[in-house]
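FW: tagging you since you asked about this chain on Friday. Here's the raw sequence from the shared folder, copied in full. Didn't touch anything.
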Amino acid sequence: MSHEEPTGPPRRGFPAGPTLWVPAVVLAFVQLVGSGVAGRHQPERVDLFWFGYVLLLAGPVLLVFRRRAPVLVAAATGGVTLLYVMLGYPYGPVFASLVVAVFSAVAEGRRKAVLTIALVVFAAHTLIGQWLYRYLPPSGDGRTSWTEVSGAGAWLLAVLAAAELFRLRREQIARDRHERAEAERRRTDEERMRIARELHDVLAHSISVINVQAGVALALIDERPEQARTALTTIKAASKEALGEVRQVLGTLRAPGEAPRSPAPGLDRLPELVEQAASAGLKAEVRVEGEAVALPPGVDLAAFRIAQEALTNIVRHSGSRAARIRIAYPPGRVEVRVDDDGPAVAGGETGGGNGLVGMRERTAALGGGLEAGPRPDGGFRVHATLPLAVRSATAEAPRDPAERPVPATEERP
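HL: got it, structure written out here
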C-alpha cells in the first residue's frame, strides 16, 4: 500500500481549528522561554537577538500548515532549525518544532519524503558539528562528540518509529470502522431481503386465495348466494390473516429492538395452510416421514414459507386441484416436497416470477438446496432440503448434485 498520496481533498484557505493553532502557540512559548533560559547557561553561544527569536517563532508558525502541506512544512522546519544551529544560537527546545513536523508528515502517510528530509537534516547537523563549526559562530566552538551525534540519530529514529506506529494504528482504526460499517450495511441488506421475502410469501399466498374466492363469489352471487357468502367469508379471513402477518413484519421496521408479538409461523401451522388451500379449491394432502424433531426457528419458518409458496404457485399456475406435501426428517436435516399433477395453466398471472427465486434464497441462506421443475411423468415438484445446523450464507455451496440450484429456465412460467 502506498502512502505517498494525500488521503483527502486538498485543504484551502487559512487553516483553522484549535487542533492546529493551540499546539503551535504552546510550542512557540516553550521554544522562546526554553531557549532563553538555556542561553543563560551557555555563555559561549551567540546571544539571542531579534533574528534568533524570529527563527524560534518560525517553526511553530509553519506547524499551523502541517496538515495542508506536511512535506513542505517538514522541509521548511528542518531548514529553519539548521539555520538556527548554524548561526550559533543556544541549544534548547528548538528541535521540538522539527520533531512535531516530522511526526505529523509521517502520520499523514508521507514516509519516503519525510525520511529523505530527516536524513538530510541529520547529515547537515553532523557536518556542522564535525567540520563546518570552524567557520561558523561562535568563535572557538569545539567539535561535537560522536556520542552526541549518535544520541541525535537515536532520537530521530525514535521519532520516525513512533510516527509510523501512530500511522499504522490510525489506519487500523479506520479499517475497523469501515469493516463495522460494511458489516452493518450487510446486516441491513439481509434484513431487507428477509422482510421482502416475508411480505412476498404472505401477500402472494393470501392474494391468490382472495383472487380465487372473489372469482367464485362473482360467479355464484346471483345463482347461489349462500356459496358466494362462504367465498366472501373466506376472503375476509384470508385478508385478516394477511394483514396481521404484514403488521408483524412491518413492526420490525418501526421498532427493530422489540420482539414480535406473535411467534413466526412454522410447520405446526401446516393444517391452517391446507385449510386455506382448500378454501381456494385446492385439496392438499400432508404426509410426514420420520420422527418429527424441534427445528431451529429460521429453518421452521423457511420450511413453512416454502410449502406456502409452493401451494400458492399451484393455485395460480397449475390446472391441478390436488397437491401432495411430504415432510421428511432424515438425520440432520428436514425435507419439504410439494407435488402437483399439472398441467400448467397458460396465461396465468406470474406475479413477477419471484416465488422460486425467494425459495432458493431462503434455502441458500440456511446452507440448504432446492430443486424446482417439471417431473418426468408430468406435473411440477418443489423439493427443498434444509440442514438443522444452520450454516452461514457465505459458506461453500453444497457439492451434492441433488442439492444444486435449478436454473431459472426450469421455473414454471
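FW: Confidence is low (pLDDT under 50) at residues 1-14, 348-352, 392-413.
HL: agreed, and The CA atoms of residues 107 and 167 lie 5 Å apart.
FW: great, closing this out.
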